[in-house]
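re: ur question from yesterday

yeah so i grabbed the chain u mentioned. its 92 aa long if i counted rite. heres the sequnce exactly as i have it in my notes:
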Amino acid sequence: MNHTQRKQFWKSVESGNDPLLSVLHGLTEKWGLPAIIIALGQISEILSEDAVDAHNLTPNQRGLIIGACAQVNQLSDQMKAEMAFLQSNSND
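ran it thru and got these structure tokens back, copy pasting raw so excuse formatting
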């Protein structure tokens, strides 16, 4: 990310012009990125189950949602494993 892009990012976060970015940034500062990723994994698990049964989605929309959820779940599982590893080795 170059200087101009960084400046625009912080402007969006601080001004609230991008509410989602602002909220996610605040949550990440409060809880930490690993916790956010793990929570998103829990959400994506339910969302993918809901997408399977949703009647108002096209096959492409359903596939996009299920694929995104699978990626988020994989990252969440990886984060849980990394956190468990760090916790088990913190007593050394």
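noticed a couple things. The mean pLDDT is 94. also The CA atoms of residues 51 and 62 lie 6 Å apart.
anyway ttyl
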